[in-house]
Amino acid sequence: QTQKPLQGRTVTLTAGPTREAVDPVRYISNHSSGKMGYALAEAARDAGARVNLISGPVQIQAPEGVNLVQVNSACDMLEASLQHLPDTDIFIAAAAVADYRPDNAADQKMKKQPGQNELVLRLVQNPDIVATIARHEQRPFTVGFAAETQDVENYAISKLMRKNLDMIIANDVSRSDIGFNSDQNAVTVLWKQAGSADPATPDIGRYQPDQASKTTLARQLITQ
Ligand code: C5P
């Protein structure tokens, strides 16, 4: 029997949205479906990897045979990611993490006050999960996503550098037929070339698979 490409490796992924509590019954979140992250988890499993899928709340089933870790907030997602870091070989951040969370979520349900026509919510910045992992001393091979609406490749490359990633998967979310909630996706994969003369300005590798279903793309991305 031939050895599968990720046999003996552990892949940890983040997927889905995060939920940031406002009070015990309310939260701030986004429309991420988790489809791309779940498709990648399945593809990694099929490639022979052990898979930790750290997921925010989604409406889809986790693939069988992966270790599903359910979380709500960005802070919980970071904690779970760090917990799995020691045995992770490849970290893939596909989650749509909320950039900000309400400062001091209320312990009790907030009440509507008579005559109060405005409410100000103070938000504080969430930790950047993938950047934290990529700066860790036990850093695994770290892959991020970049959803952009313009100048997709340039923004993705600056994100690759700023977050200290090894690879970034860029997609154009200005198109409604692909990306975010869709089953289809069109991406460009960008990575730092090994052996570049100056590590501060590495040569960038580029791979652009044809537009395809998230399942097909995930298989291609994992096996490349
Ligand atoms: O900065 P931006 O949100 O565009 O970066 C997207 C990439 O960073 C994705 O891989 C996403 O999962 C990751 N990210 C993260 N933690 C955050 C924000 C983004 O891991 N707080």
Layout of strands and helices, then pairs:
Blueprint: E1 10-15, E2 20-23, E3 26-28, H1 35-46, E4 50-55, E5 67-70, H2 74-84, E6 90-93, E7 100-102, E8 123-125, H3 129-134, E9 141-148, H4 152-162, E10 167-172, E11 184-185, E12 187-192, E13 204-207, E14 212-213, H5 214-223
Parallel strand pairs: 1-4, 1-6, 4-5, 6-9, 9-10
Antiparallel strand pairs: 2-3, 7-8, 10-12, 11-14, 12-13
Helix pairs in contact: 1-5
The structure holds cytidine-5'-monophosphate (C5P).
Task: Summarize the structure in words.
The protein is an alpha/beta fold and 224 residues long. The chain has one domain: 3-Layer(aba) Sandwich (Rossmann fold). The protein contains five helices and 14 strands. An eight-stranded mixed sheet has the order 5-4-1-6-9-10-12-13, with helices on both faces. Strands 2-3 form a two-stranded antiparallel sheet. The protein is globular and about 70 Å long. Bound molecules: cytidine-5'-monophosphate (C5P). The site of cytidine-5'-monophosphate has 14 residues, from α3 and β9.
